[in-house]
Amino acid sequence: MGMINGKTKLVGLLGQPVNHSLSPAIHNAALQEMGINWCYVALPCKKENLQPALKTLRDFDCKGLNITIPHKNSIVPLCAEVNLIAKRIGAVNTLIPHQNGGWKGLNTDIEGFLAPLKTTDWEDKEAVIIGCGGSARAVFAGLEKLKLSKITIVGRKESSINQFLTDLEIFSDSFLTSKRSITGLLQDEDLALIERLKTTNLVVNTTPIGMQSSGDKRSSPELAMPLGQEIWSNLHSNTLLYDLIYTPRPTPWLNWGRNQGMKTIDGLEMLIQQGAASLRLWTGKHEIPIDVMREKAKNCLKI
Ligand code: NAP
Predict the structure, then answer these.
(1) Tens digits of per-residue pLDDT, 195-218?
(2) Which residues line ligand 1 (CB under 6 A)?
(3) Annotated catalytic residue: which of 47, 72, 285, 302?
(4) DSSP letter assigned to residue 191
(5) Are 97 and 72 in contact (CB under 8 A)?
(6) Structure letter (DSSP) for residue 46
């Protein structure tokens, strides 16, 4: 980081906890490379302190904020304005100062998720999303942009799947007029699931299964695969496996895929690209030193 002086401006991350976040390291590396006299700080914040923190940070001329667990949803009503896509998925991860005071909420997770998929034409292809929580909403919104013909959302609880479909207005009139097929499936509907996996071109894991210290009972290395072990033999070898997790790299699921000769993507690039997209919004600069951010992240993860 460059010298902090009287002209240094603040950017930062609000969440709880924030002490393991890679964001300060990757953002400060980028800011230094760009010669911008800002400092990015992780700010632990309880839910009840969010509103006063937002006001104070705006008063201090804070240039931008990232929002992380557990505030991505609860921040929405606290924004002066929320852009359409963030409103639709009910999650904000980036704030920029609003011209009339307060903050404008946006979501760069969608752009971050999509970045590594951009080199392929996905039109009329099929995808399966495992999990239907917060990040699955950003993943779905991203996949919608790729004009896939079929998207299947797989969850472990009917209530979560229904909530997901309702929140994203998948039953709305505008959806019914589109040609795409979007289905929610329970993970124990084996036959239907196998049929989907046989033809899918892309599978995205949005559950924490396989994550280091996820606390999941199934996180012993040989068992920590979403949907268990056997079902994956139904994939064809051209399927792309995309796991949002980046610790460990690779996850047991991606490791299995690599051993089968499949293409795989882990969550590190999404993390870096969502950060780069936030920096673009805050600085107004298009060119962001993504390589510097990537190297910094890998250094921090010791890989
Ligand atoms: P979340 O909102 O809690 O959603 C997790 C989803 O996984 C829920 O649908 C949950 O099911 C399901 N799930 C959890 N444990 C499960 C299990 N044992 N079996 C089956 N399903 C299970 O979490 P999130 O914010 O979406 O984050 C999910 C993962 O994505 C985390 O590992 C996170 O680190 C990663 N992530 C990475 C990035 C990145 O930039 N790379 C960004 C965001 C998130 P229920 O609905 O039934 O509870």
Answers:
(1) 999 999 999 999 999 987 645 544
(2) 109, 112, 131-136, 155-157, 160, 206-209, 211, 216, 244-246, 267, 270-271, 274
(3) 72
(4) H
(5) no
(6) -
Residue that the structure tokens 């289905």 belong to: 183
Peptide bond into 17 cis (omega under 30): yes
Query: Tokens at residue 228, please?
Result: 């268990």
pTM of the model: 0.93
Segment 131-154 shows an average pLDDT of: 93
- Please give the distance, rounded to the nearest whole angstrom, from the Cα atom of residue 71 to the centre of ligand 1: 15
Q: Which of 123, 183, 126 is nearest to 153 (CA)?
A: 183
Q: What is the DSSP string of 56-110?
A: HHHHTT--EEEE-TT-TTTTGGGSSEE-HHHHHHT---EEEE-TTSSEEEE--HH
- Quote the ligand 1 centre to 244 CA distance (angstroms): 9
Share of the chain above pLDDT 90, in %: 86
Residue 72 is a catalytic residue: yes
